[in-house]
Amino acid sequence: MSWIAVLGYAAALCSTVSFVPQAFRILKTRDTSGISAPMYALTTVGFSLWLAYGIARLEWPLILTNGICLVFAAFILVMTLASTRQKDAIADAIQPE
User: In angstroms, rounded to a whole number, what is the distance separating the alpha carbons of residues 70 and 46?
Assistant: First the structure.
């Protein structure tokens, strides 16, 4: 495997894993007060565009990485925009107590 491929895999791993702690924190605490909705909206649009680009080029590394990142970013955005009652319902559905 070339160093360029290793670099790409490392970047994809970091990008994907970076959302996991925030998503789990939101599930646990249901607190999104410190999250910027416009930033996550822009991030979600960006991942959507990267995903579309990857699909258009049939490049699976782009498709997989940006598809996973899109799911996490969209989840965080939805939880940021949701009311307290909606957050509770979503979190309970995903992680029942």
Answer: 9
